[in-house]
Design goal:
This protein has 17 helices and eleven strands. It is of the alpha+beta class and 522 residues long. The chain folds into three domains: 20-151 and 313-338, no CATH class; 153-283, no CATH class; 356-518, no CATH class. The protein is flat and about 85 Å long. GO terms for molecular function: peptidase activity.
Length: 522
């Protein structure tokens, strides 16, 4: 062993031995609990890490573990004055987190499974350290939630907000513009507020940064709340200004120049300026002195509420064993359910449609719905003698799990990165979920989505998820099918999308029965 290694390990060893025995035991058990969490739910932690590493939206999460260590270090001198204890009510929260993981696993919802494993890590700390220590470490424990890569679900909403802000600014700057959903047409060109332009990356990072600053730099809750509101509002407004600026520059200097300027200035400089502006605006309102203690151990010890809660004590080794048993129960239940697959035919095909013929699939602009993990996928175009034309996408799933979700995020008629964007909601024609979508051209489509699982027939993704979860809780093997009917719209000399789809729906009869026939072997 080299001298530098000895020099490094000696202070760490002295710090460990200087801890009270009860703290060494509690930290050792907590380390075992967290290690077991990572090993038992390795797939979820690996999926989270890959998102932190590969997705620019979540690259900032790579800093969160180091921030957590720093936050604990700010409190550590006072925290060790509080005695840790085992606390059995923490097991109730641990079981709740495990059940959330199980539901997410059954629904194929990675956000729920990843949130579940992080909540189990938090509940482990509460169970093994007790309510008083957990109160002292409340913010670092809560800040662990930022480990969960969440926020992509906000993309469609942020696209719409950005487009509306852009239109308002274009009107103020007297640039003629027309908007359809997230597509904006001006004399200088045709623009889309795409997923990458939604501003979700900066918003997510700014919320995590805002929460950190609110805790470290503010002592009063009203100022913390005001700073968090500013941290949410500023990136949304700034992204609208960014989109407007790109279009405004394109009007005067061309689209190519605007695109290059957007990536260089707005991508690297503009949002740094916004973050600096937020700090400048808030600086004079900071009310926590740099040498203020982050927690008050005397107040924690004297708290009557924490005193009553501390009465529900439990031996820490028994608490760890109980948590391990709960985690194994849910992991085993999930593994059993995931091993179940419904029987499906080796080959399927579209049922016949009276008066309609299947023709070559040749849309104006390529459209291919996403059915990730489906056992069978069919995509075809049907036309009748009156010129009505409908595109049909059908998918049959033997199971519903992560990577095999009929109604998962980014699945269906508007896949992320597929070149199509949501324009507006539409009235359903046959009880499904209808959207009007658009791509460059512009080319418009009307699309209606239907789900079928057992006796359930719905256009609601939520109802489908609930049915899938119930089936897996009860260990039932059941297929799930998705049907998307779509037609191109606004084509001169051809029937409207609604007319074509109504004609097709009339020809196939009850949609649920037609979907069932499509699942039969051919």
């Amino acid at each position: 062993m080299s001298p530098p290694d000895l020099a490094l390990r000696a202070p760490l060893g002295r710090a460990w031995t200087a801890l009270p025995a009860q703290w060494r035991r509690a930290l050792g058990l907590l380390a075992l609990a967290w290690l077991g969490n990572v090993l038992l739910f390795a797939a979820d932690w690996r999926a989270m890490f890959l998102q932190w590493w590969d997705s620019s939206t979540y690259n900032h999460v790579l800093l969160i573990p180091f921030i957590l260590g720093w936050l604990v270090s700010l409190r550590w001198r006072e925290v060790v004055k509080v005695a840790p204890q085992g606390w059995w009510p923490g097991l109730v929260l641990f079981a709740g987190a495990g059940f959330l993981w199980l539901l997410g696993d059954f629904a194929g919802l990675s956000l729920a499974t990843q949130l579940g494993v992080v909540l189990m890590a938090q509940a482990s700390a509460l169970t093994l350290l007790g309510p008083r220590v957990s109160a002292a470490l409340a913010f670092p424990l809560a800040y662990m939630l930022f480990l969960v890569p969440a926020g992509d679900e906000l993309i469609p909403t942020l696209q719409t907000i950005t487009a509306r802000i852009t239109m308002a600014l274009l009107d103020l700057s007297q640039v003629p513009a027309h908007i359809e959903g997230v597509f904006i047409t001006t004399p200088g060109g045709y623009f889309e507020v795409a997923e990458a332009c939604s501003g979700v990356k900066f918003l997510i990072a700014m919320v995590a940064y805002g929460a950190l600053v609110a805790n470290v730099c503010f002592a009063t809750w009203t100022r913390r709340a005001a700073f968090m509101a500013l941290s949410v509002a500023m990136p949304i407004l700034a992204n609208g200004v960014r989109a407007w600026g790109t279009i405004f520059i394109a009007e005067h200097h061309g689209i190519e120049f605007a695109a290059g300027f957007d990536h260089v200035f707005y991508g690297w400089i503009f949002f740094a300026m916004v973050m600096a502006m937020v700090m400048v605006l808030a600086w004079r309102f900071f009310d926590r002195a740099i040498d203020d203690r982050m927690i008050d151990p005397d107040a924690i010890a004297a708290s009557p509420v924490l005193g009553r809660l501390s009465g529900f004590a439990m031996a820490q080794p028994r608490a760890l064993a109980a948590a391990a048993a709960i985690a194994l129960l849910f992991a085993g239940w999930g593994a059993w359910a995931n091993s179940l697959e419904a029987a499906i035919p080796a080959r399927i095909d579209f049922p016949g449609v009276p008066g309609w013929q299947q023709v070559d699939y040749a849309p104006q602009s390529h459209w291919k719905p996403l059915h990730g993990g489906a056992s069978h996928v069919l995509l075809g175009r049907f036309r009748d003698g009156a010129g009505h034309t409908v595109d049909v996408s059908y998918a049959l799933y033997a199971m519903q799990a992560d990577g095999h979700e009929a109604g998962g995020f980014g699945q269906g008629a508007i896949p992320l990165g597929g070149g199509w964007a949501w324009e507006r909601s539409a009235a359903p024609l046959a009880g499904g979920h209808a959207d009007r979508i658009q791509t460059a051209g512009p080319v418009h489509r009307l699309a209606e989505t239907f789900y079928r699982s057992g006796s359930l027939f719905t256009g609601s993704n939520t109802r489908l998820k609930l049915r899938n979860i119930l089936d897996r809780l009860l260990l039932r093997e059941r297929t799930t099918a998705t049907l998307i009917l779509s037609a191109e719209d606004d084509i001169p000399g051809q029937p409207s999308a609604e007319q074509s789809m109504r004609a097709f729906l009339s020809a196939i009869g009850p949609v649920d029965a037609w979907m069932d026939r499509a699942a039969l072997p051919r």
